[in-house]
Fold:
Amino acid sequence: MILLFSGIFLGLGWFAAHAGVVPILGPLVATFAPDVFLIGLVLLAIWIAKKFATKKITVGGLAAVLSIVMGLNTRLPTIMSDVLSDRASDRQVIARLEGAVGQSIHVVAPQAELSARRDPYSHAVPACYGDGCLATKGFSTAYPGIERHYWHEKVMDVVLASGFSKATQGESAPTLTIGQEQDDYFVTIRIQLTDANGKAMSHYRGRYRNRFPYETKDGVQSIEAESPLVLEYLLHGNLLNRIAARRAPNGDSYPLTAFLKSASHLTHPQGLIFDLISGMPPTNNESSSEKIRLEILEEKVYDPVWVIKEEPMSNVSKWSELTWDSKRDERCKTLLKPEIDGAPQLQTWHLFVNDLSGRKKVRYTGIAICDPDAIWFLDYVIEKGRTVLTKYSANGDLIYRVGFDKPIEPYGYPGGIIFRTFTVENGYLQFEWWNTNQSGRDMHVKRSLKVRFREPSR
Structure:
């Protein structure tokens, strides 16, 4: 009877693994297939144990051992080796590199990109069909080129995003040495930071499992190897494998980004260091602004609200005509350039075109306002309840960084600076602050303030 039920569960697991072709319900059923298959293996282990032992305690012990052996199957020796091995990663910071954004550094890296599996114990899985994955089409292994399966770090992009600048040949500067070695089963990454005199400051070694013996190499779809991938999914996607995977050590994901964060500390007036892992604007808020008070010159409250209507079929925005300064916006493109070509505006440093050193960096934190001789960067987020303005000369010299409390807003109408009204007159910076809300395509203006403050002297 036990053998019969074992066969039933093994068969159900096999068929459930193929159920992903059924829309919606199929992929859900397929996710349980490895554990159903595992139940069949456990029942088979009990049947075998009863053949070789009579005492219940002996049968139970033997069945447990056989279940683990069958459940982990071909991965058992590898898992034991991984669990008992030394730490998979080791990072030591002897002396942290202190400096400012733009710090020059030599980079020695034979590989332009570092990469390894996100999940070292990944296995063949049902291949998703379509973006919504309502059904599956066969099976696939992890794909090295897909960020979801492998993490990737472009060496120079990470170094630049961390605030460094590339040193010129012969320049006295720290050196970052990076190496990646790969064999059939492991990727090993080594990173070392030395000072300008060659003295070690920090180092990292990480080991990453690349694949397993007797399993299909990454990058294969079911059209190339159907049956092996189904069997690998059933054997290696079960609960026992998942538990064992959590016990096995693995190197850090995005090791270069993590290494530079821990091994160096570069300051910047905007207090910003970019994080390539999340792809989000930075949140390392170290620098506070000089506090100033706004002088309110004029206030107008709209009751009822002023509605700026947009025509549904119009290509011209009335709101933009009232608030945007296209001339200044175009000027920014001539004064600033992204350090990493093709990167989204908020996800890379920008260099000043007029800076001969090429090492003065700045970050977009919202709108930039560009005059021929000065550039302001607006930030509504970095200091809670305050708006921050950072002013640079056209060649990248910091002039000032100031912040003011946001005017108390009417309920439901957040405020902001109106780009077009931003002017400098007689040592004062003057602009309008509008409290608005959007309804569909239309903008509702509740209040407008005309304000100013005296610019700090250098």
The CA atoms of residues 124 and 233 lie 5 Å apart.
